[in-house]
Amino acid sequence: MDNFVKDVKHAARMFRKSPGFTIAAIAALALGIGANTAIFSVINTVLLKPLTYPNPDRIVQFMTTTPQGSGVGDSIPKFRLFREQTSVFQDVSAYDFGGAGINLTGGGFPKQVRGVHVTGDYFRLFGAPVERGRTFTAKEEEPHGPDVVVISDSLWRQHYGADPHIVGKNIDLGGVPYEVVGVIGSEFQSDPAPDLWLPFQFDMNTRDQANYFLVAGRLKPGVTIAMANARLKIATKEYLRNYKSGIPPHSVFTVQPLRDRIISGVRTSLLVLEAAVCLVLLIACANVANLLLVRATGRKREIAIRAAVGAGRGRIVRQLLTESVLLSIIGGAFGLVVGFFAMRGLLAVNPGNIPRIGHDGSAVTLDWQVLLFTFGIAIVTGILFGLIPALHASHGDLSAALKEGGLRSGGGFRQDKARSILVVVEMALAIILLIGAGLLIRSFLALNSVNPGFNPHHVLTMQMSVTGPRFQNTAGVAQLSRLGTERLESLPGVLFAATTCCVPLQGGFGLPINIVGRPPKHGLYNGGSGWTDASPDYFNAFRIPLIRGRFFNVHDTAASAPVVIINHALAHQLWPKSDPLKDRIIIGKGVGPEFADPPRQIVGIVGDVHDGGLNRNPRPNLYVPISQVPDGMTALNARIAPLVWIVRTRGNPYALRAPIEKTLRQASGGLPVAHIQTMDQVVVQSTARQDFEMLLLTVFGGAALLLAAIGIYGLMAYSVQQRTQELGIRMALGAQAGDVRNLVIGQGMRVAIIGVLIGTGASFGLTRLIASMLFGVKSWDPVVFVCVPILLALIALFAVWLPARRAALIDPAVALRYE
Question: Packing angle between helix 413-448 and helix 737-766, nearest 10 degrees?
Answer without folding.
Answer: 60
